[in-house]
Structures
1.
Amino acid sequence: MSPTASSRALLIASLAALFVAAAGAAQRLASARPRDEPPVANAAYDGRFTFARLRYTTGPGGYYYGGLPAWTA
């Protein structure tokens, strides 16, 4: 390997390692952010049936699977 080729390989390997480290750091910072939703306390429960509405957020892409809405799959 010539000095130019080995330095180019070293540069590419260094950039790849830098990108992997940056992606890992970005994931760690994203999971450490506080959530915007306030905590919810439990309602008083007397043993009778209680209707509960669940609230959640979807991931990127919404409810779609394979580019199609879930009810047509």
Note: The chain has one domain: 3-34+42-72.
2.
Amino acid sequence: LFLGEVLAAETLKEGPALTYEYYKAVKHGKTHKNATTFYAGADRPA
């Protein structure tokens, strides 16, 4: 566990933040097949 304090910040580029929702919707992010959350086809829980 690491705790810290932000001393300075700046915007590097204007535009939407790369949130998980944006990543999935726009970048079509996929879960790697070896990830513990990967479900192939019909094996996916409801």
Note: Residues 17 and 44 are 29 Å apart (CA to CA).
